[in-house]
Amino acid sequence: MSARGTCAEHPHPGYDRSGVECGIAHLGVGGFHRSHQARAIDRLLEQGLARDWGILGVGVLPSDAGMRDALGVRDGRYTLVEKHADGHWDARDVGSILEFVHAPDDRRAAVERLADPAIRILSLTITEGGYPVDRESRAFVPGASAPAFDLIVAALRRRRELGRAPFTVLSCDNIQDNGAVARAAVTGFARQTDPELAHWIDAEVAFPSSMVDRITPATTDADRAEIARRFGTDDPWPVVAEPFFQWVIEDDFREGRPPWERAGAQLVADVEPYELMKLRLLNASHQGLCYFGRLLGYEFVADAARDPDIATLLRRYMHEEAMPTLRPVPGVDLAAYTESLIERFANPEVADTVARLCADSSDRIPTWLLPVVHERRATGARTPLAAAIVASWARYAEGVDEQGAPIDVVDRHREAVIAAARRRTHEAAFLRQHELFGDLADDPVFTADYLAALRRLRSEGARAALRALR
Questions:
Q1: Domain match, 189 and 277 both
Q2: How many domains does the chain have?
Q3: Does residue 322 share a domain with residue 244?
């Protein structure tokens, strides 16, 4: 459909889906996958390309039944709306997801479907906490719950039994060197029961890294109602996203790949510079914004991003602490990139929530922010801004805002995080959660900066703590 057309005028994608075949299986079909990777394949199909690279969605958790049902209503199609800062919305009926299998319903059928030789790539977005790999050592954690990797290993075992080539495993999660992390998770899980299979996987399966970027907030009932009003479409689970799209992929695929470069992706030999840029600037800055933003009473990211004190914190963190840890990124002006991030955060149409960014912090802060701290401290440089961001998380994790109202702390380590944050008799108790911070509490310089910010947050509030950093 045209950029400003309506879904009512074009109820189906602008290509014939009947001859498209699945070549990619994706674990973790959610809003982000549907705004990003699935849209990239959709763009190729619009051009008459990639007709053997349609997507097989795979649900791994019982809760994924909701996505199965929503996609089933419209034969896998869904509405993607890009929200521009000037107020106009572009809608697209996306048709690249052709099938959906829910492994908890019939695991054997899911394994057999993934063993189909037509499936040459298995991609995944299962969140940072879904990988059974130690953050620091990058080693597999035996005994960890890992339903996605149990399924991947079962499918690879079946392909090997049938004499079929393995699929490429493409991680699209926000983890540094996510290809290597995925390799450690898959081979480690296999090694627990079948060392020979683990050796075969390590030798035969490609695990390219990738960097993905597109702000995709959770779809709300208000989004559904407005999409129906503007475009005349009744979609149980549409997707909303910002216009920006970036995908950088390591070009390492054993059984072929779609021509993703024709859909705006970059295929490169080394993803790391782009990966570190995004994780340490965009993702870590989201954490710099969200806790202070919540304590100041902001509900939406755009409003918090337009707060001068928060914007100053983010700019200073990016320029003074994060950027010195990055090496040059081919084709990217880092100074311009940081300004574009502030503009993207401030897009009022996206309506991303501060609460979404605050969720799962025990997976996010160690993965995105702490590597900056460790690299800077290794050179003797201070990181007072990163320390203040950690302190803002600690204050937020107390579970009560500055007006005394409860904060719903969403975190897989919720009880431990809240207990540590509330232990005021031991000021550095939050920092002494070894699983999250390692030995960082033993660094007197970082701890001093952290405690200075935390004390001000507790005694004078978030506004005063932000202004003290200027």
A1: no
A2: 2
A3: no
The alpha carbon torsion through 344, 368, 133, 391 (nearest 10 deg) reads -120
Three-state DSSP at 341 gives: helix
- pTM summary value: 0.90
Q: Do both 224 and 337 map to the same domain?
A: no
Q: Are residues 234 and 311 in the same domain?
A: no
DSSP string, 143-162: T---HHHHHHHHHHHHHHHT
Q: What one-character DSSP code corresponds to residue 327?
A: P
The residue assigned the tokens 């699209």 is 172
Q: How far is CA 70 from CA 75, 77, 201, 418, 454, in A?
A: 9, 9, 34, 35, 44
- Please tell me the predicted confidence (pLDDT) of residue 12: 67
What are the φ and ψ backbone dihedral angles of 351, each rounded to 5 degrees?
55, 40
Write the burial class of residue 230 (CB in 10 Å: 0-12 exposed, 13-18 middle, 19+ buried): middle
The CATH number of residue 106's host domain is: 3.40.50.720
Q: What single DSSP character describes residue 353? A: B
Domain with 246 in it:
22-268
What pLDDT is stored for residue 183 in this prediction? 98
Predicted confidence at residue 4, as pLDDT, reads 38
Q: Hey, what are 236's tokens?
A: 């149980």
| Nearest of 101, 112, 98, 124 to residue 30 by alpha carbon | 124
H helical segments located in 74-144? 107-114
pLDDT digits (tens, 9 = 90+) for 413-435: 999 999 999 998 899 999 999 99
One domain for residues 233 and 379: no
Rg (CA), the chain: 22
So what's the pLDDT on residue 13? 86
The DSSP string of 435-465 is: HHHTTGGG-HHHHHHHHHHHHHHHHT-HHHH
Q: Using alpha carbons, select from 148, 101, 142, 114 the residue that is nearest to residue 128.
A: 148
Residues of the chain with pLDDT under 70: 1-12
Q: Are 334 and 323 a contacting pair, CB within 8 Å?
A: yes
